[in-house]
Amino acid sequence: xxxxxxxxxxxxxxxxxxxxxxxxxxxxxxxxxxAGILQKRxxxxxxxxxxxxxLFQIDAATYQAxxxxxxxxxxxxxxxxxxxxxxxxxxxxxxxxKAISPQEYLNAQVAQRQxxxxxxxxxxxxxxxGINLGYASVxxxxxxxxxxxxxxxxxxxxxxEATQLALIQQVNPLYVNFTQSANDVIKLKKxxxxxxxxxxxxxxxxxxxxxxxxxxxxxQGKLLFSDLSVDPTSGQVSLRAELPNPxxxxxxxxxVRVRLE
Length: 261
Prior knowledge:
Elements: E1 7-8, E2 14-15, E3 20-31, E4 36-41, E5 48-49, E6 54-58, H1 61-96, H2 102-135, E7 137-139, E8 144-146, E9 156-157, E10 164-181, H3 182-194, E11 199-200, E12 204-208, E13 221-224, E14 236-243, E15 255-256, E16 259-260
Antiparallel strand pairs: 1-2, 3-10, 3-15, 4-6, 4-9, 5-8, 6-7, 8-10, 10-14, 11-12, 12-13, 12-16, 13-14
Helix pairs in contact: 1-2
């Protein structure tokens, strides 16, 4: 656990926040979007992964066969469309010369439109089959640090629900969530306006983290004031700080305090 110093308002009274907790900037569950046997795990547990990187491979044989079947259906539909379109073109001058009945020409046009609809449906089926085939390769939705695999090779996944396979957390930077009384938040803002607290940019107050052994975390963070609201039952305000974490020293779930400079 990390121990952090308190910060002080301009009137000399200390404003001591409750213990806060580190939270990943972004968290994404890696899930199986199609059903099948999990064949391979393609990452090292605890490693950093990039968005779009392949993480798992689900048996794709069934989905490949579905793609090929849909492509064959599309080819038949396109052949039928070509045939009906040729018939309409042949009937057009005959109908103008009244060599065929209006009903025959109408029937040929209806058949052509049906063939066009069949081609459109077949193309959609090919696209759907291709999407499902792509889902057999499970990729990372975001960049970040991936935890342990939650399933093993040979497991049936995605059967009836999108099975969670792993969890990715973006840990650089990290959030620190904590609560503070509304009065102390007002004091803090006044201290910032008075210039007694160091700022980063126009709004953010500069913060530091001190480790258990008393050493100061070397990188400076900032206090965020977005979406502040007071809990009517406790009178507490939820605050959030943001800390850079390029080396991964800080981990989500750790408890912290914040010191403003």
